Amino acid sequence: MASYALVSVWRIEAPLRQVWEALCQTDKWPSWWPFVTSVETISCGNDLGVDAVHRYAWETRLPYRLYFDLHTTRVKPMRLLEAEVNGDLQGTGRCQLYQNGDLTTVRYEWNVSTRKLWMNFLAPVIRPIFTWNHHSVMKAGGEGLALQLRAHSFEFVEPDNVIS
Asked: Which of 58, 83, 90, 136 is 20 to 30 A (C-alpha) from 64?
């Protein structure tokens, strides 16, 4: 399997609580995240959402789709979401939120491997294209969320400028 460690950062001029609530309402993602085609709740988990399982269908800028389940493993309200990913992608995801004045920063980290045979076969040659595609999908999500929240500003931090 081809492995990827991907970081994306959104800076949204919107209250932390609004950003958190939008991210936790995954069933509504298709209304503001252009590449999310469907979200199905498999399990709701506990009161915080730990052990929740959601099944996602994603389109991408490239001509392929991805399907995977996200199992929420850790939640710190208004600060952190962690999950295990299983399906066309396998691995872990982490979403951290920070607030500085009117600016909410959302930092996504994906440590995943692709499980589609053709993706693994082509990865040595087109890894940069897969990475570009991921960042393009993530940028569109941040822009969609900023519009949904009527944020005053939005910035997608280019991956080369993210301090890990």
From this structure: 83
